[in-house]
Specification:
By secondary structure, this protein is an all-beta fold. 0% of the residues lie in helices and 47% in strands. The chain has a domain of 47 residues.
Length: 74
Amino acid sequence: MDKSRLFSSLEDHWAIDGMVLEQNDKRYFIWLSRNRVDIIQRLYISRMSNPWTLEGLRVELSYPSTTGKPLASA
């Protein structure tokens, strides 16, 4: 069995820069991805039932408040 991919059938999107957070004997996965509405990258978190399975829905933690494009000089 290949366990190199964390999979959530409810939210199957690409994900980058993932990391595991262990807090109070619980494990969470945090990653950068996008939603189905736009192409803005957002930071998500989901609880893990074991080291290779996400549990429940992902929760959006943050998203950029700007487009990331450089501002024109004055």
